Amino acid sequence: MARAALTREEVLDAAASLVRQHGPGVLTMRKLAAELGTAVTSIYWHVGNRDSLLDALVERTVADLGEIRPSGYTPAERVVSVARALRRQLRDHPHLIAMVHERGLTERMFLPAQQALVHEAHAAGLRGTVAADLVRAVQFQVVGHVLVERNRERAPVQNPGEEELWRTAPAEDDPALARALAGPLDTERLFVTSVRALVHALLATSTHPADTRHESRAEEQPGQ
Question: How far is Cα 82 from Cα 213, in angstroms, rounded to an integer?
Fold first, then answer.
């Protein structure tokens, strides 16, 4: 049975799948044609050359990441929710994000998150340089945290590891601290804790009474 006519969207879907699995370096027109069971000339007809294909993939990736919708009762909670959404995007699409970076469109990719942060900074009463500091500090915190997470995940097994070291290392008469450091690392909880501390410090110059009203509720749900 003859396959239906190939579409541009099918070509982009297959290309995105290859990039997600193996990174942009493995994406060739010949490999993509083999994946789709078609001729290389058909790929060229739909998307042009490889550079045009990568540009189309980048445009679609940026569009798919889309608008970030903050959640929460206060500007502080909503800023943290934007940070968490951005972290999920970076962790869920590492190869596509790398491709966006290689094509020089990283700042455009971050724009929706920045716009959401600007809105919340204004809602908290921040303007000008102070608001810009909030936007950039949160963005850098997210990116830095994701990079550290990936480095830990990719690092060879450590011997002795952190857990073993802290079972015997002195902890200045704080056994609870030693036990915590010897236990598994909850990167999500650590991320939320660090972003929340950063956000509250940056918002301290314009604190709304409502900013802490629902804090206990947010603390009870760090995994959301």
Answer: 19
